[in-house]
Design goal:
By secondary structure, this protein is mostly helical. The protein has three helices and no strands. The radius of gyration is 21 Å and the shape is elongated.
Length: 86
């Protein structure tokens, strides 16, 4: 069997990482500003910004992995069970 040609990533596929970084940055800035206004401590608000940024980025990445199709599983399903038993 011939392997299918790799598909060209769409514009949406190429911009998805930028969207995740931007949304995580907005969440981090919001938490940092709220912390700064509550405590008036710049160092603490910078730490909260960093923590919120990293946690939101990891959560978004895990959610994206959970909903995106698994390309290697689709390739194996196309080959059928007989391809692995040879």
């Amino acid at each position: 069997m011939s392997t299918p040609a790799p598909r060209e990533p769409t514009r949406r596929d190429r911009t998805r990482p930028v969207e995740l970084l931007g949304l995580s940055a907005v969440i981090g800035v919001a938490f940092g500003i709220i912390t700064y206004f509550a405590t008036r401590d710049l160092l603490l608000s910078a730490e909260v910004f960093g923590i919120a940024f990293i946690v939101s980025l990891v959560v978004f990445a895990m959610l994206l992995l959970a909903i995106s199709p698994r390309r290697h599983d689709d390739d194996e399903a196309d080959d059928g069970p007989s391809a692995h038993s040879r």
